[in-house]
Write a structure and sequence with these properties.
69 residues, alpha+beta, 1 helix, 22% helix, YHYH domain-containing protein, YHYH_dom_bact, signal
Length: 69
């Protein structure tokens, strides 16, 4: 019985795990933002552009607020 339960449990675990997670490099400061230093165009930003991260929750606020420098 154990031989059947373990593979079933592992299969369900792998199916229920998130398959894709997207994030970008860089930590945020005490205000919840940071300057873009690398691969900025990939994220739709300019080099040295400061922007905030508000957590990207389900509320109506945008996930990021951009401040041009």
């Amino acid at each position: 019985m154990k031989r059947i339960i373990v593979p079933i449990f592992m299969s369900l675990f792998l199916l229920l795990m998130p398959v894709l997670a997207e994030a970008h490099p860089g930590r945020t400061d005490a205000n919840g933002g940071h300057y873009c230093r690398t691969n900025c165009a990939k994220w739709g930003l300019e080099n040295g552009e400061y922007h905030y991260h508000n957590g990207g929750g389900s509320d109506s606020k945008p996930a990021a607020t951009f401040v041009r420098r």
